[in-house]
Amino acid sequence: MNRRRAPGWAALALVTTLALTGALTGPAVASPAAASAQTPTTVVATATDGVTHEQNDRVPKGSVWTQHYFPSSDGSGTELHGDLLMPEGVPAGQKVPVILSIGPYFGHMGQTNPEGWTHTGPSNRFQDFIEGSDLFAHGYAFLMVDLRGFGGSTGCLDWGGPGEQADVKAAINWAASQPWSTGAVGMYGKSYDAVTGLIGNDLKQSALKAVVAGEPLWDMYQYIYSNGVPRPNVTGTANAYNGIATMAPLSDDDGHYQANARYEDDHPGCLTENSAGYRISDQNDPFWTSRDLAKMAQGTDTPLFVTQGFIENNTKPEEMQEYLTNHTGPERGWVGQWDHVRGGDRVSDGRLAMGREGWYDEALSFYDQYLTGVQPSVDYPTYSVEDSTGHWRAQDTWPVVERDVTLPLGRGSYLDDGGASARASLAAAGTPAPKAAQPSGNWDMENAPATEQPAPKGLAKGIAKRQQAGEVGSSFFVWSQPLAQDVRLTATPNIALTAKGEGNIMLKLYDVGPDGKAVMFDEQVSLLKSGRMSVDLKATDWTLAAGHVLAVEIGSIQTGSWRDTPSGQTVKVSGAVLRLSLDDPSDDVATQGDRSPYLDTYLRQYTVDLPAGPASFTVTLGGHI
């Protein structure tokens, strides 16, 4: 529980509550099941008639709910809807700072699907944050705004594009300009509504004082394509958001909300238009350049607190480093080895999903510092980082790089057959690979399934064996010498090469132990390009232990869930080099945190048999060969 002192008026309101109830309880909202199991209180708020928890049990305790409508900032006529939660008991004339969250998941009927609510009320999407931070007791308002086309807002969907950027700008300025507002706005979100936080930073709005963004996309293109290769959700994500946009309002929503929520009924072209943009595979098309959040962050300085799982398979750390490099303002970060989770989430056995205590306190302290001028009472690390060993360290920035190296990978050939020849060899050896199930791809950013399939048993080892026999297969490997000391690979690895042939290429990095067990810890795919080409892998923070070997695999796309089209051609690779940023783990400064539970899940899924082969390069903090 947060122990920071509450404003005087909030403390007085809390004393009154205790006197009436005889107990100290945090803000809570009824679940759909609980709401249907009791006689609900169902008063619906307007802009002027506020509603408390006692009048509607979907309103968090300690707050007053009102609804508001205001125009977007692009002159399109789009009308935005917002649910405002003000701290209960604010004296007349008292102004408060505002935490804004804007996205597609705040509809009264449910976040991504109808949730069975029997009466309307504000979304409980960030009830964990409201309760965990004691937000209202600390004098903050919380504003949830529906992006265009979602919930109670009109307009056509525009996934991360200029339309949504105009919505974010309008919401920030509306929150800052209200008579009850101090004019200081912070943004909070996870996944999609973390993306809108990055957009808010990119827009350089003076009223925006801080952004807390958990597990965002750093560039919208990378969620749909990998360097021209479609991902499984290339059409499905559009379908998922079209579905969210067309959810029917609840029967007791007011007439204004109901009319706006049915906007797509009278504008069916909105859904078709939304789907069309996702089919553009060219990253340089204006559709995607207008959504390149990392590039747009150049010169921005809004204080930014981010979280990112390096090994998550949903909103991956692609162009993360570019965004943070382009951002020049104060930063805070939790980065480590988890999946698509929130800072305060816990797994089924009660362990914290990120492994680190104190998310809500630290997030609120960040807002206190930049929205109200209250300096933190705790000396928080600028970046708290969990590496692949499960240990946490404190850093003044991310990444910390002691040496950049360029390692020669030489030349080789592979057959762009989607792994067919490698799987045929497994079958001939009596261990046929199971047919990989292709996911439907119909998911949104918040609810992506586990799409990555484990590599078939023996696949990597079989490819390496065929390579050593002089055969050209679905890929080839290059190995380092065993490391003389522990070395951390951090930042964004890059591979540059010249390829002769057409088709696709997959690039993977493995941590190979002396026992022949190897963990695939980074990967990327791309369409082949004529001439010299360069591919960034995902950002990483992986420690290779002394005695281990770094293996690089170059070849056809034969694992994962990309919707690639193999060319069937033999591709000749020459002049390949691997660019790495290295750090020495021996000088880490430890900070509190436990091993994130997902790390062990990842290790089980991505560990394969791959004995080290003949070495052709050396990885060392002191230089390279």
From TrEMBL:
- The answer to whether UniProt assigns keyword ATP-binding to this entry is no
- Which residue intervals are annotated with compositional bias (Low complexity) in the record? 427-439
Q: SUPFAM superfamilies attached here? A: alpha/beta-Hydrolases (SSF53474), Galactose-binding domain-like (SSF49785)
Question: Which Gene3D superfamilies does the record match to this protein?
Answer: alpha/beta hydrolase, Galactose-binding domain-like
Which residues, if any, are the signal sequence?
1-30
NCBIfam families per record: CocE_NonD
Q: What is this protein called?
A: CocE/NonD family hydrolase
Hydrolase keyword on record: yes
Keywords attached to this Swiss-Prot or TrEMBL record, sorted alphabetically, are: Hydrolase, Signal
GO MF: hydrolase activity
Where is region (Disordered) located?
Answer: 427-464
* Residue ranges occupied by any Xaa-Pro dipeptidyl-peptidase C-terminal domain in the UniProt entry: 364-583
